[in-house]
Design goal:
The model has no long low-confidence stretch (mean pLDDT 77). By secondary structure, the chain is an all-beta fold. The strands form 2 sheets. The protein has a 3-stranded antiparallel beta sheet, with no helix packed on it. It has a two-stranded antiparallel sheet with strand order 1-2. It has 2 domains: 33 residues, no CATH class; 40 residues, N-terminal domain of TfIIb, CATH 2.20.25. It contains no helices and 5 strands.
C-alpha cells in the first residue's frame, strides 16, 4: 500500500460508436492504490510449449483485463536421476 499522496499519469483511449476519445486519467491522491483480483492459468502442451491465460479485475476502477498467450521455453529442466534400487536383505 502506498503511503501519502501518489500521482499516476496515463491516458485511456476508447472507441465508442466509431468515435475515438482519449482522456487523461488517474491524477491525484490515492489513485495508486487499487484493490482487485488476479487469476492466472498455465497449461503445458509439451516440454516446450504452454498456453497461458490471465484475468485481472479492478474493484476501484471497474476494469477487467483478459489476456491469452502461448509461451515457448527454450530450455527444459533436466530430469532428476532415478534412485538406485534398495539393497537386498
Amino acid at each position: 500500500m502506498p503511503l501519502g499522496n501518489q500521482n499516476v499519469y496515463g491516458t485511456v483511449t476508447k472507441k465508442v460508436k466509431g468515435k475515438t476519445t482519449t482522456t487523461k486519467t488517474l491524477e491525484g491522491p490515492g489513485v495508486a492504490e487499487d484493490n482487485g483480483f488476479t487469476a492466472e492459468l498455465d497449461v503445458p502442451i509439451n516440454a516446450h510449449v504452454a498456453l497461458t491465460g490471465d484475468y485481472e479485475r479492478s474493484l476501484r476502477q471497474g476494469t477487467d483485463i483478459v489476456s491469452v498467450g502461448i509461451s515457448y521455453v527454450l530450455r527444459v529442466p533436466k530430469k532428476a536421476a532415478p534412485e538406485p534400487p534398495a539393497p537386498a536383505r
